[in-house]
Amino acid sequence: MSSALTSVRPKTLMSTVVTIVIGFVVVRTLLLGFVTGVVPYPDGPSVINDILLYSEWSQLLVTGRFPIGDDMWQYPPGAGVVFALAALIGANAVQGFFVLSLIADAAVLAALIVVSVRRSGTNPPRLVAAWAWVVAPIIIGPVFIARFDVIPTAAAVAALLLLSRPVYSGAMAAVGTLLKVWPGFMMLAIPRRSLICGSTGFVVTAVGILMLVSVWAVGGIAFIGEQQSRGLQVESVGAWPFMVAQGLGAQIPLEFRFGAMEIDLPITITIGSVITVIGIGLIALLGVARLLGSLERIDGVEIAMAALLISIVASRVLSPQYMVWVAGVAAVALINPSTRLRPVVALLVVSTVAGQVIYPLGYGSLLNGDWWAVGLQTLRVLSLVAATGWCGWLVLGRLTRPHWRPPPPRRQDAEPDSDEFQKARSAIEAG
Questions:
Q1: How far, in Å, CA of 249 to CA of 368, rounded?
Q2: Which one-letter DSSP state was computed for residue 148?
Q3: Tell me: the pLDDT tens digits for 228-272?
């Protein structure tokens, strides 16, 4: 019987993998059709505006200079390397960028399939994680492929899949951090006993890349000071009350700054700062709890997801492409059949679908305060906050509960429990 199962399993596995790959190709082809206008999608071609901006930057980057002084440049130095590479490998930078994004996209899928199969052992493999990554662009929309975010997400996914090899996990977290900062939160997934190895991999890789970039180009760290005076972008969680007020008839001034529409009120600077400080404090609490060993019984992917969601909610910007980050971490979580993140993922799907309708289709309506767009934005924000709260409680809630340990197994020849034995004897004697 076992030999029959062994012979059947490879055939079933291969057919499943082929189906997944076909689904991947179909969905990505559809995405490219959306952004090029070949396949109808409301305002589909407009979502490549950022890629056109990447293309402009790439022309400067190939000369060895970062866009110093450009208030729309908001990326760490590793991103400059990718943008410059895009200009070199394609007929133009736009084509090159799509090639690099699709390579990173396919690499994530391949890694999820391989790890899912390996962790299944002799059991039938669970390829839920791979399927989740395949369908993620349908939920997120064409910004999935029309933004830079798939590439740092690939580094973050690699960091999580390599947790058993902390040096490599730290190295991949460093690569992702130098692409778009947030993959650095994946370091919180590394158990305390492996933090030294993981930190070594992170530091060595980061220093090596920074040294190479400094030799190649000028202004790699200029992004740090470019957006210190940023306010609240209209889609952000902090801006939600203002957008609701707009929907109820208030006149909320808006202004285009730092590549996005922002609430043009002085108080938003203070609100944004307060929210940011709260977010930093919560993530710092996760870091301290990890160092103290208080999170060792929690799945590292759950900790990484909590930190990521806190950072998104506390951000002064809420762009739809942020859900690409979430999709990568969620896919890794779904490899584990006992993950506690399924309800969190369900809430995030609701938020993401609402976000896809808001941008690009309903963005103008949101700015105008139309009731349906404000309602969708409310659903988007509240489901995101609920998911963050749920995930945060799964992780930080452990700090408020005493550590429970299961009782040791009782030996068959052990003496009866004294209390129960006494009660039974008393009952017999009373009878």
A1: 10
A2: T
A3: 667 899 999 999 999 999 999 999 999 988 778 999 999 998 999
